Each structure stands twice: as C-alpha cells, then as structure tokens.
Amino acid sequence: MTAAATPRSFQEIILRLMTYWASKGCAVLQPYDMEVGAGTFHPATTLRSLGNKPWAAAYVQPSRRPTDGRYGENPNRLQHYYQYQVIIKPSPPDLQELYLGSLKAIGIDTDLHDIRFVEDDWESPTLGAWGLGWEVWCDGMEVSQFTYFQQVGGHDCKPVSGELTYGLERLAMYVLGTGHVMDMPFNDPDSAIALKYGDIFRQTEQEYSRHNFDQADTEMLFQHFKDAEAECHRILNAEQPDKAGRTIIMAHPAYDQCIKASHLFNLLDARGVISVTERQAYIGRVRALAKACADAFVQTEAGASA
Amino acid sequence: MPDILIELFSEEIPARMQARAREDLKKLVTEGLVQAGLHYASAGAFSTPRRLTLAIEGLSAESHAVREERKGPRTDAPDAALQGFLRSTGLTKEQLEVRDDKKAQVYFAVVEKPGRKAAEILAEVLETTIRNFPWPKSMRWGSGALKWVRPLHSILCLMADEGGSEVVPLDVDGIVSGNSTDGHRFMAPGRFTVTNFDDYRAKLARAHVVLDSADREAKIWHDAETLAFAAGLEVVPDAGLLTEVAGLVEWPVVLMGRIGEQFLHLPPEVLQTSMREHQKFFSVKNPKTGRIEGFVTVANRETADQGATILAGNQKVLTARLSDAAFFWDNDLRVAKTGMGEWEEGLKAVTFHNKLGSQAERIARIAALAREIAPLVGADADAAEQAARVAKLDLRSAMVGEFPELQGVMGRYYALEAGLPAPVANAARDHYSPLGPSDAVPSEPVSVAVALADKIDTLTGFWAIDEKPTGSKDPFALRRAALGVIRLVVGNGVQGSQLRWLELGNIQNLLFKLNAQENGDGLGGLLILALLDRANGEFGLKLTPQSYKVPHELEEHRKGRNYLDFKALVDGGYKDEGDGVLAFLHDRLKVFLKDQGIRHDIIDACLAMPGNDDLTLLVKRAEALSATLKTDDGANLIQGFKRANNILTQAEAKDGVEYSFGADPKFAEGPEETALFNALDQAEKIITPAMAKEDFTTAMTAMATLRAPIDAFFTAVQVNSDNSIVRRNRLNLLHRIRTICGQVADLTKLDG
C-alpha cells in the first residue's frame, strides 16, 4: 500500500482511522456515554473481551484524567482527550500488519519513519486486567499501545483479544507537525470556519482544571463513590427472576456504576485527598466492582463461553 | 554428522529477555539431545527482536542402540512380586527370560532399545522445549492455548549434511516446521528459504537482518563513536543501554543529534536519565565543555533521506521530554531557593510505612541518630543533623517524582541551591549508599553519619514492628541495609560500640509504635515516659510527654514502682535478645567475611569475645586470626592450644578448681618446660602492648611463635605428673597458654 497524502486536520485523522478499520471489518461504534479514564473502560472492550464470542469493534473514546489537567497551558497534557480504540477477538495472526496499515492510512510513510515495537506490559489494577504487548514507537515517540489481553476482571481471556489504543492528540500533533495541542487544526484549515483544537477545548481545560484540582466537592465525591459501589452490588444481587418471571442479569447497568466509581476515585485523587495507603484500598474496591461485573457478564449470552 | 538449524520466529521479543532466552534455547535443546543419546560438536544461539536461533554442528545421525538387562524375582516367588516386576519393566510374562541363577530359576527382563534417528529425537526435544520455555512472562494469542513470549509465527528446523538439507517435521499447535524465514519487517519483508546456517546467515544479512547481537552491538558502538568523533564529541559509554538497543533492532542505523541550547543548563544526570529512560538515547559529551550536548539514537532501518525524518522526529520528542524536565527543574529550583520548606511540609503527608509513620517522622528519627553517630565518624553533630533533615526532601520534588532513580542526586543540587554547605549537600546524594555489594561506600564524615542513621532507623524500625526477613523474603531490603551498615563501619574504620545507635533507633521506633497504639495513660503511658526520659536524658533528645499523649498527672508517678520498673528495664540499654538487630548484623557480617575468604568458624571465634558490638574491632580480629591460621605455625599453634585447653579443662572439671594462680618457673623440669616459660614471657611482652593498641596482627604473630615451644613441651613433658606440685604448676602453665592465646579470639570455637 502506498502512503496516502498527509491529513490536514485532527478530524481527518479520526475519519481515516474509522474508514480504515471499517474496511478491515470492525463495527464502528460510538463513544460510551460516560466519563471514563481510557478507551479500555468502554464495555465494548472490558466486557466484550470476555467469553468466546468473536468481536471486532473500533471507536473514539473521550477520556478523562483529572490529574493531567494543566489549565490548557501544557503543549501536550490534557485532562480530557481522545483515544482511538480497536478491539478484535480472537486476535488475528496479522494484527501487527493491520496496525501498520492504519499508520499508512493516516499518512505515516513507513519507508521514511522508524516504527518499533517496544516491550510494554499493560496492567489495569482497577479493572483486574493485564496483557502483554508493546508501546509502538514512531521515530522515538509512543504513538500506540498494542496489547494481547490475558485477563480481564480476574477472568482468563479465551480466546485472546488484541487491543490497539491510539492517543489521538499526540499522534495527530506528530502527523500534522503541531507544537502545541491547542494550535492543532481540528477541522480543515481552509474551511470557512476553521477551528483549532484550542478554539474548542482551551476554555474547557481551564474550567475543568480548576474544578478538578480546587473545586470538586470531596465530601460529595466520597458519598457518590460509596453510592456507586453500593448500587453496583445491589444491581448484581437483584432477585432473579423478576416479577414477570424473566431472568435478566444486569451486567451493563452494574458496570456503569463501576465506571462511575472509577471516575470518582480519579477526581478524589486529583483533589489530593486520598493518601498513599488509602489509594490501594480504593483501587481494590473499584477492582472488586469490575470483577463482580465480569463475573456477571460471563453468565450472560454475550459473555458466555459455551 | 549433520548440522542443525532452528529458528523460532515471533512478534517482537522484549530486549531484556533475549540474552537469557538464547542461553535457555541452547541449553534445553542440547541437553535434551544428549539425554536421548545423541552427541554434538558445538552449538551457538542467536537472537534478534523477532527471532531466536540455534545452530548445532556435528550432531550424531542416530542414537546408539541400548540393551538393558534386569534381574527379577525367582520363578517360585509369590505372584505379587512378578506382577510388580512386570509393571516396572512394562513387559508381559511371555517376554521375560528364565535363567538359572544360584540353584534357582530367576526371571530376567531384556529390553533392547534400538537406535533412533536424530531427526525424530530433535523434533521431540524441540517441541518439548517450545512448550516449556522458561520465559519470565508468556502469553496466549488468538484462539490457541500455546504460550510464547509474544505470538509465535513460524518454526524453521533443518537438518543439513553433505547430501543436502531436509526439514525436520514438527507441528506445534498448528505451527508446522519449514525451511523458510522472513527478512527485515520494513526493508525486506517476505519469506525466503534457506538450506543451512551459513546460507541462513548470509541471506538474512541480504534481507537487512544482522543475526548476531554482538555484531549489532559492535556496529552500533563503532558507528556512534565515529559520528561523535567527527564532530569533536564523545559518546558516554553505557553497556546496559547498548545491549538493550541491540535487542530492539535488526538493522541498526546510528544517528546523532544535538540537544537544544535551552536545555544545556540542566544537570547532566537529568539529561542522561531522561534520554536513556524515555528515549533509549546515548548521551554525547563535549570534552571541551564537559557538558552533555548531544545524543545518539539507533534506528532500525535505512531511509531514502538518510534518516533525516527519523532524526527530526526523535529531536522533537526529546525537546518535549526535556521541556518537561526543564519545567520540573525550574519549579524545583524555586522551592529549593526558598529553603525547601514546601517539601519538608509535604513529606508529612507521605507515608513511609503505615506502622512506621510518615517520611517526616522517619526523618526526625534519622536526624537524632545522625547526631548520635556523628562524633564516632568524625562528623560535626550539627552538620550531620542538618544533613539528615534535608537529605530526603527531594522526594517531594517534581524531578524525583518523574525520575525516582534521581533521588539523592537531585537532593544534592537542591541543597546547594538552598545555600547549604557542600558536606550537607553531598550527604543528600550519598546517604542511600551503599546500595549493592559493589556500590562505593561514602567516606565523607557527614555522609557516613547520615547513611548509617538511615539504615539503622530502617533496621530498628522494621524490627520494632516485627517485619524481619525470613528465608528468601526480604521485602524491605533489610539484608541490604545491614550490609550497608557493615560496609560503612568497616570501610571507614569506624570504632566504638554500635549498640548505642541500635538503642536509640529502637527507642525512637518503639515510641512511635506505642504512640500509635496507646492512649498515653496507664501502664503504656508510664512505659512511654520511661522511654522518653531515657531518650532525653541519655541521648539529649527533646521529646515532650504531651506529644505522646501522656497526661500531666502521669508525670507525677515517676516515683511509683511501675515507672521505676520500666526505667530499670530501659536504662539497661539495648538488649540483643538472640534475634535482635545486632545478631542480624553479625549474621550478615559472616556472609560479608565469608565472601572475603574468612571461614565462618573464625568469625564465631571472634564473635565470642567481648566488644563484639564494635564491627570494626570484630573484623580486625577475624582478619588477624585468618591470616595467622594460613601460616604453618598458626595452624599448629591451634592444635597446641587445644591440647593445652583440653587437658586443663578436664583437670579443672575433675579437681573442681581453676588453675589460675600463675605458674612458677622454679618448678620447671627439663629444658622444654623452661623454654616454654621463657617463650611465654617473651610473647607476652609483645602481646600485651599490642592488645592495648588493638593490634591483633602483631599479637597473633607473637602467639604463633609459641607453637614450637608448646609442641616441644608436650612432646617432652607429661602434664599429669605424679608429683602433685609439679602437676599443679604445669596446669597453671597451661592456664597461661589459654589466657595468652585466647586474647584475640576464642580459639576453642575453631573447627578441627
């Protein structure tokens, strides 16, 4: 495949990735409608990597990492950013080649650049998940995470899912040659109304940075954390069958509460009110939720191994 | 004699695992072949990021036939015996032979194992090796169950001789062996077939793969030095990085770039660490300025633009990374210049260990210890305390947050920026040392004091909360801390008892523990009070009962029996009750000295002497004794001493007296006995002043001169004479031998 012309905007890179992975047979999903720390949290990855039903999906996931907020001043740190996520189960034998094809699709000419697969084992203590793989380097810059899932929510992944995660802003800045994320063209720079990344996100970065670091009501957050935790367990322990005699395991609604708890924990962490020792305990509580949701999901039709 | 070529081709193998994997592949396959009855001339293993390769030369074409005979039970033995024999041989009764053996008939099993083809054996051995390969971490992929470090794509397995080469058939979970491999992922993708190792290696080279990691390392280093030299610069050697980088590329292409002017003010350690950890760059130094001014990166391919795009990309990433570093540095300097108070405050919130408190609490304990230790190591007490208070402040700095391995190094820079004197700043850098057995030992007095205080607080702290190392478990690296204490004390010749240090460390950690457990009233409060009084009275600390929740009323109970009991206990000083910290230090000292070739019984002999809480003294004793025992006179002296001691001990036990009245030369009979008296007098003249100076070598050398007179005495003289006066005198003489020879070490503890 010859390299395509260089894209001109952030959104063009997203569109090209969408087109590319759609052409490779992935279902192009939309972002999950909740606050998450990474694309992995989307149930399309976390839950669907369990059980033995084949699966192939690609999607953009807005991700929030409150501690990374820099009031929009840092050239490449944001508390809200986009991840592009691809998940294929079972992992195809040519996944590396497919991935390299996606780089070409967004204008990275592998004849001119130095692409490397550098060991990086992935572990998510909050999801009770781990996998082996690499961070992919392009000329020394990490452009993606490439992981073969081995375990999620404490369950062995059989078959194994292959997961690709692209940090979109960083990748796009590299491809577009932008020095500061806020200067990056979001839509085509020749558009009648040309918008830069900063036109859309500078103000929100400021607002959320202040909120995350100084203003988020910690007492309320602690309470919400407890509520989400309790609700997650309650949903999973609901009486079966329901009044109409239907047995419906509510793995997804319960998992929503797990996602909430995880984000609340991240906010509390950004507020600096969780000590080093407490930290481990909170991570353990979120992991317990993730595990309970995984336990429930594998009993459902979508998550079964039969 | 065929040659073998094996290649296991996979997705990228982590660089750090490749060297070990090469060795494991070679070992497992060759051992398997040898166990199956084959032999080979030589074997060599190779690795690139995508392949593990093994070449074996001169393998025997087949294994020898083996004929094995086993004798079984007699034919008239119970059936159970026969059944057992059949089970163990795997034969049926009909296959057994019956032979005459000593008047009875006996079953014999004759098992003939025919020779097997090498290819057949190799296929089995390789499959077993692949299925059981000892990767540090391995994984499954796709729908399969096979585990490998990353997905395994192909197996090449060839057997080649003069007649040509053949694929050794093998099928591991659907991966079928063949005779082809793949070239460089980007520069020469596509499979090609090979016939033998030489062909393989040559075709790989044409396909832009350098098979041997040593060749890749050599090329990288040569090209890096050449590039740097041409620019009047030099590459900073980094063997670990070189190995790692060689494991990341199949076709190394070295590129050199410059660090932006705006970053050259950063400390060299920051530049080096950032470049090495994040980018795997080598640092390039300008010998004229002594600064790190450039970098070398190693790409995995050649490009039409001679690497210009790759270098520009790397440069850009470096600029972003160093901008971060510069941001941290500038922020940190602001805090440092205002005296680092912000970090001091921040460390109150950082837990060291949930049972041992915050870093701030630990620092206070270390500061008190550093003060106590200072005079013994020749340091100023105020400087030592100040150094202890600032040594760990950099843990709160942004730079150490990003690069934990720079702890201490940054501490020194920031302490200097804060206007602190050089010895204090150096202690911040050096107080973690020595980290490993080969790490340099600090020698500046203030650094030594803080380094010792740091380790003694660690040891007494974890002892106080009962977290001692057991077996292979040592999660808090207490063995390393103990070895650190030993090397700091012995390496700097620090003299004096270490018990006081342990006592202070122990009191402080006990107080912390009690404070967390107790309400401060009742008996617990009185114990706290006794410990506080000891800490303040004996060690000059200024701890207040209030900060330990001890109520005022309780202080009036200082005349009460309970307080006085505690006080007596506490005033007794640090007691090493069998498995205390001192015993642990002694234990580690044995390991330390054994590594220097000093036998464990020599150390035991020295440990039995008083003053064993002074490690320097202990080591001096052990070294002197060890040196003496290596001489003929020394070794024989021990025999003479033991003989004297045995006779004397038996006599003392039998007679119920101690023969310590002193022997009188006037009762000496014969020249040997007189000579011994004289020799003892002579030796004592040397030994007594030597011992006063703790010059154990001179003392031991003088003792060794006693060997000949003692031997002569025992040859010529019967100690248990019929004449009771003579006997008593001789026993008293033996007592003199025991006393004189027992001054450096308890020689009865020596083996043999």
TrEMBL record, chain A:
Keywords from the UniProt entry: Aminoacyl-tRNA synthetase, ATP-binding, Cytoplasm, Ligase, Nucleotide-binding, Protein biosynthesis
Molecular function per GO: ATP binding; glycine-tRNA ligase activity
Subunit record text: Tetramer of two alpha and two beta subunits.
Catalytic activity: tRNA(Gly) + glycine + ATP = glycyl-tRNA(Gly) + AMP + diphosphate
Gene Ontology CC terms: cytosol
Name of the gene: glyQ
InterPro entries associated with the record: aa-tRNA-synth_II/BPL/LPL, Gly-tRNA-synth_heterodimer, Gly-tRNA_ligase_asu
Statement: the UniProt record of this protein carries the keyword Protein biosynthesis: yes
NCBIfam families (UniProt xref): glyQ, PRK09348.1
Protein name: Glycine--tRNA ligase alpha subunit
Family to which the UniProt record says this protein belongs: Belongs to the class-II aminoacyl-tRNA synthetase family.
Superkingdom classification of source: Bacteria
HAMAP family with a match to the protein in the record: Gly_tRNA_synth_alpha
Location in the cell: Cytoplasm
Chief location of this protein within or outside the cell: cytoplasm
Top EC group: ligase
Biological process annotations from GO: glycyl-tRNA aminoacylation
EC number from the UniProt entry: 6.1.1.14
TrEMBL record, chain B:
Catalytic activity: tRNA(Gly) + glycine + ATP = glycyl-tRNA(Gly) + AMP + diphosphate
Any one of the GO BP annotations: arginyl-tRNA aminoacylation
Predominant localisation class: cytoplasm
Sequence ranges assigned to domain DALR anticodon binding in this UniProt record: 641-740
EC number(s) reported in the record: 6.1.1.14
Location relative to the cell: Cytoplasm
Protein keywords: Aminoacyl-tRNA synthetase, ATP-binding, Cytoplasm, Ligase, Nucleotide-binding, Protein biosynthesis
TM region positions: none
GO cellular component assignments: cytosol
Top-rank EC class of the record's enzyme: ligase
Pfam family membership, one: DALR_1
GO molecular function, one term: arginine-tRNA ligase activity
Subunit structure, interactors included: Tetramer of two alpha and two beta subunits.
Family: Belongs to the class-II aminoacyl-tRNA synthetase family.
Name of the featured protein: Glycine--tRNA ligase beta subunit
Gene that encodes the chain: glyS
